[in-house]
Amino acid sequence: MNEPRHLVLGTPLLPPYPGGMMRALFGMGCFWGAERAFWQVEGVHVTAAGYAGGHLPEPGYRQVCRGDTGHAEVVLVVFDPDRVGYRDLLRLFWESHDPTQGMRQGNDVGNQYRSFIGCLDPGQCEQARESLEHYQLRLHEVGLGDITTEIAPSCPFYHAEPEHQQYLARNPGGYCGLSGTGVRFD
């Protein structure tokens, strides 16, 4: 049986991943555009669309879209920390979407489209909180509102269905509502 591979990167979608790799979870609205943003980063081994932050094990797309599972659409980012740091991924996260919109991103409305960071270890939670505080100051400097991003510790990840994996690589003209505030992290 052939194991599923990333359409763009050519790497296996499922673990085990090579030794030394780290994982991160980010929700920035619809996972299609968020996944594309991260697969373009040098040092990212693989990305996968999925769900995190909810209460139902093994959720499906229709369940998540109904809004009753509590899950956010997220991207799993498996990366080589010798080539790209978690802080660099956080910078891309903050700059690539509007973390002040609450339960939405652009035209995508609902709990599943909220801004979300799933921490996979205490160090990630600490760095995520520090980066939130830093970016909040930057947003306030230009008159934008408060960040609504959820930072969730010990968060399980569930892969989305195959048709959602690398969706924008297979459908280059597909919908992507991802847009940032224009405020740089630095």
Write the layout of secondary structure elements.
Blueprint: E1 22-28, H1 31-39, E2 44-52, H2 61-66, E3 72-79, H3 86-96, E4 104-105, E5 108-109, E6 115-119, H4 122-141, E7 150-153, E8 157-159, H5 167-170
Parallel strand pairs: 6-7
Antiparallel strand pairs: 1-3, 1-6, 2-3, 2-8, 4-5
Helix pairs in contact: 3-4
Provide a descriptive summary of the structure in words:
- The chain has 186 residues and is α+β, with helices and mostly antiparallel strands.
- The protein has a single domain (22-170), classed as Peptide methionine sulphoxide reductase MsrA (Peptide Methionine Sulfoxide Reductase, Chain A, 2-Layer Sandwich), CATH 3.30.1060.10.
- The protein has helices spanning 31-39, 61-66, 86-96, 122-141, 167-170, and strands at 22-28, 44-52, 72-79, 104-105, 108-109, 115-119, 150-153, 157-159.
- Strands 7-6-1-3-2-8 form a 6-stranded mixed beta sheet, covered by helices on one side.
- A hairpin with a 2-residue loop joins strand 4 and strand 5 (108-109).
- Helix 3 packs parallel to helix 4 (122-141).
- 39% of the residues are buried.
